[in-house]
Design goal:
Length: 145
């Protein structure tokens, strides 16, 4: 038995709260569905936030050490020490936030995957362009009549 996908039903007159969708509304919807995978480019990050925070942490640690050692014996060593303390505190907060964001990022990716899986049950996300083309063709045929 062949499973009927909703992309085929969208070509027919189905209703949304008592009124049929126009050809333009259907086309717009199918275009939005077809671009679903493009959202993944924004959702799935190429870099790991934890690794990024560790790299920045090493830079901050080295910068702090060099700056303090270079400023020893100078008049402004107190200000430098205060600035480096503030820099280290900011780095701790940055690291903590990056860890939290990494956890949220994983959760976001999981939810995005779930949404895609469910949408793919009803719509062929990869093959949706065919339906868009057929709706465009039917619109052209109707306007020529």
């Amino acid at each position: 038995m062949k499973t009927l996908k909703l992309k085929h039903l969208i070509k027919e007159e189905w209703t949304d709260q008592g009124k049929g969708l126009s050809t333009e509304e259907k086309r717009s919807f199918l275009e939005a569905i077809s671009k679903f995978n493009e959202f993944g480019k924004s959702i799935y990050r190429e870099s790991n936030l934890k690794e990024l925070a560790e790299s920045i942490g090493k830079i901050v640690e080295t910068a702090s050490h060099i700056t303090v050692s270079e400023s020893e014996g100078t008049f402004d060593s107190v200000s430098v020490g205060r600035h480096m303390k503030s820099l280290n505190e900011s780095m701790k907060l940055f690291g903590k936030t990056a860890t939290e964001m990494s956890t949220l990022q994983q959760r976001l990716e999981s939810c995005f995957g779930d949404i895609g899986t469910i949408l793919d049950r009803y719509y062929d996300i990869h093959e949706i362009q065919e339906s868009i083309d057929s709706i465009k063709e039917s619109k052209i045929v109707k306007t020529k009549k």
